[in-house]
Amino acid sequence: MSRRKDFILNVVGIVIVVLFLFPVYWMIITAFKSQSEISQSPPTFFPENFQVESFVNVIQGGVGHYFLNSLIIAGSATILVIILSVPSAYALARFNIRGIKTILLIYLVTQMLPATVVLTPLFIVFNHLHLLNTYFAPILATATLGVPFSVLLLRTFFIGIPKELEEAATIDGCSRLRAFLQVIVPVSLPSILVCGAISFFFAWGDLIYSITFNRDQDLWPLTAGVFNAIGRYGIEWSSLMSFATISVIPVIVIFVALQKQLIEGLVSGSVK
């Protein structure tokens, strides 16, 4: 009975994975198809003749500039999220702060708000600060997506770390700051990597903030480039899918390279 149950669960798991990954697979194989093969019926599930002209056209069309902008925005936003969320989560986990439930509720509510709700207030603030048409506006805006999530996740992890670790470090002559940096942060590294990776994914996939706060297309990231390519290429789906394929490469690389740490950080709740 247990074998049959395991078999059914495995089959269900495989079906779910295939359903989620099929759009990605279709995007990639479409990028390698010719325009005539894309429009033929019935569709082919594997390219009959691989072609890379669409990738060459996209690269020559300036995808590298969009790629660099995405790296600057997503990388800077991720660093900012880590700098703000790690000490904030530690303070909320270790100190008796008055109104901590209200603070956590505010973090939770801000995480639930859609981008369209905060778009206009952020635009007004950035306009007064003269941050429009700069990298700073989308960096700060996308960081607001990662900070609440990271604080809530890291606070739960910090609560699970025994206070005896810090007390032992204090006895050895460490200050609270040094104990935090040399003891707590290394122990919490998997969870910090999770927060950093998810914050990077948030910032990398941003579109609405970038095109709203930056009218200068030279500052647009890859997502805005894909959006712009829809009207630029028209029905040239191979070029559009090539653009989209290039845009997801960093996400796939990060997930594959850090999958062990990401899984460990998500499921860890105590010190081993």
Written overview of the protein:
The chain has helices at residues 2-31, 35-39, 53-60, 63-94, 100-112, 115-128, 136-159, 163-171, 176-187, 189-204, 208-213, 222-233, 237-257, 259-267. By secondary structure, it is mainly α. The protein folds into 2 domains: 1-51, no CATH class; 61-267, MetI-like (MetI-like fold, Orthogonal Bundle), CATH 1.10.3720. The two termini are 34 Å apart.
Structural class: mainly alpha
Order of helices and strands: HHHHHHHHHHHHHH
CATH architecture of the largest domain: Orthogonal Bundle
Assembly context of the chains: single chain
CATH superfamily of the largest domain: MetI-like
The separation of the N and C termini measures: 34 Å
Number of helices: 14
What are the key terms here?
MetI-like fold; 2 domains; 0% strand
Outline the secondary-structure elements:
Blueprint: H1 2-31, H2 35-39, H3 53-60, H4 63-94, H5 100-112, H6 115-128, H7 136-159, H8 163-171, H9 176-187, H10 189-204, H11 208-213, H12 222-233, H13 237-257, H14 259-267
Summarize the structure.
This protein is mainly α and 272 residues long. 78% of the residues lie in helices and 0% in strands.
